[in-house]
Specification:
The protein has one domain. The two termini are about 30 Å apart. The protein is built from six helices and no strands. By secondary structure, it is mainly α. The protein is globular, with a radius of gyration of 18 Å. About 20% of the residues are buried. Helix 1 packs across helix 5 and helix 2 packs across helix 5.
Length: about 140
């Protein structure tokens, strides 16, 4: 399970890199990626595991919506905590909450949380698991 989460964080990092490279310069994309991968590995993966733990008894579309809400909520909290606590030395500190929501770092946080959630839900589907088994079975047939 943790391997799927790490794979999800790597694919999310790649996807966000592609999106920001298309819409902005390569230098900004590399700047975002430099902080995004460690953040996803050390903050996003535990949040996703926490969401899975909380929602293990719920099934269906309601679980998917609550999982999306949890991922997006923790992305916003990650940006707003330095502002609320008033850590003026922190890079993520803003004078007020409105400035925090308008900041350049809020969009990548929400976008990466949403993409992380999408890939995480895709990895949980039966069709994805069946496709992976099929591909691994084909690779297994290539034995010498």
């Amino acid at each position: 399970m943790i391997f799927k989460k790490i794979l999800t964080s790597l694919t999310t990092t790649g996807m966000v890199f592609v999106i920001f490279t298309i819409f902005d310069e390569m230098a900004f994309s590399l700047f975002i990626q430099m902080y995004l991968l460690p953040t996803l590995l050390f903050y996003g993966v535990p949040v996703s595991l926490f969401a899975d733990y909380l929602l293990k008894s719920i099934d269906g579309f309601f679980r998917v919506l609550i999982a999306m809400f949890i991922h997006l909520l923790f992305a916003v909290v990650f940006i707003l905590v330095p502002t609320i606590l008033g850590w003026k030395w922190d890079v993520l500190y803003f004078e007020n909450l409105t400035a925090a929501f308008k900041s350049f770092i809020m969009l990548p946080a929400i976008l990466s949380a949403f993409i992380f959630w999408c890939f995480d839900e895709i990895h949980k589907t039966k069709a994805f698991k069946d496709k992976c088994r099929y591909i691994l079975g084909k690779i297994g047939e290539l034995r010498i």
